[in-house]
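Re: the request from the purification team.
They wanted to know what the chain is likely to look like in 3D before they choose a buffer screen. I agreed to run a prediction and write the result into the notebook, where they can find it.
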Amino acid sequence: MTFAPRNSNELLQSLRRYRRKFEVIAVRCDTKDVARQAAKDRRVDLLQFSVTSLRKRFFDEAEAELASQALASLEIELAPMLQLTSFSRVRLISRIRKEVATATRFKVPVTVSSGATDELLMRGAHDYAALTTLFDMQLPSALGALSDNPWSIVEQNRKKLSPDYVAPGIHVVGRKAGA
């Protein structure tokens, strides 16, 4: 489920309402207020930022520190890079390069997704991994960002959605018959 809240209160309401219903929660951070709230909230799995407006990309050191503590992941959509042209593509790649470096420095996982809006923009995993070299990701890290990181988010959240989950580190291991 992807949320695109206008403010942090709207984000909090959506998280309260939908977190226990979906395996993955992504938040489109179009304002700094929403970006900060999403980065510090443990219920958010993926932080998404605009690919068309660089002024709406708020992933900086403060954001990275909050995200690393809340275990959120920075999501990078690659299909828009195939659509942008000339200088706007160069600026986006430059910005993503800085964001990936910041995420790496603060140990924030990076998740790479297609971001495809139609089937003509779909590519294979190795094609997308090759694109990540444009922003200085090594091939093994890129393949992990395409498969391992998203899978670990799903696995972790499936455990949390289980009826045996109580709180972080606390699980029901057995139930009495008739209880």
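For the purification team: Helices lie at 8-18, 32-40, 61-70, 79-83, 86-105, 125-132, 139-161.
Please add any questions underneath this entry.
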